[in-house]
Amino acid sequence: AQSVSQHNHHVILSEAASLELGCNYSYGGTVNLFWYVQYPGQHLQLLLKYFSGDPLVKGIKGFEAEFIKSKFSFNLRKPSVQWSDTAEYFCAALLNDYKLSFGAGTTVTVRA
Amino acid sequence: DVKVTQSSRYLVKRTGEKVFLECVQDMDHENMFWYRQDPGLGLRLIYFSYDVKMKEKGDIPEGYSVSREKKERFSLILESASTNQTSMYLCASSRDTDYYTQYFGPGTRLTVL
Known about the structure:
The structure holds two protein chains of two kinds.
Chain A: E1 4-6, E2 10-14, E3 19-21, E4 23-25, E5 32-38, E6 44-50, E7 56-58, E8 64-68, E9 73-78, E10 87-94, E11 100-102, E12 106-111
Parallel strand pairs in A: 2-12
Antiparallel strand pairs in A: 1-4, 3-9, 5-6, 5-10, 7-8, 8-9, 10-11, 10-12
Chain B: E1 4-6, E2 10-13, E3 19-25, E4 31-38, E5 42-51, E6 54-57, E7 64-70, E8 73-78, E9 87-95, E10 98-104, E11 108-112
Parallel strand pairs in B: 2-11
Antiparallel strand pairs in B: 1-3, 3-8, 4-5, 4-9, 5-6, 7-8, 9-10, 9-11
């Protein structure tokens, strides 16, 4: 079955550390990829998206993600996290139809 | 800013009750969605609608129905609530020209006893 998998369930790190969250999808065709974020007590919101073109995508709040087709991956990165980046992060993909498939989510806790 | 509102943040119902979850968006979006969010499972699509009175099943439609009588309002109905429907329910909307940028509501945490 086509799906989206996120490697880490919970990541704990200190402020100023670098963050990388893994996301893989299982589909060989054209994909559109997304990262959504849900801050504590807030709505889920779009962080960044990839449709085509430059595989390195810049998003809001200093986040970026790289699409590596050969690895079926779309990992999210931030060079230096802040306490305010504590949130749950969801990778999503449009695989071959009109529905977004979401990963299970990764909870990121940043310690001050 | 797009605003998607849901009728309740928290709801407690009993097994067998009929439950209505309401969602309203104020940006004239064509598409509206209902998801449920469970720990370890992420978001799963229940139903979506691309126009008034139109609906399509998502990945987990069993035990749910929907209604879209007006463009701004999309209702999720649990005909006979069961304990396995205890979950966080998220509504979202998007524009036809940017279908995959979905704007989410705050969620309704439903507990079925």
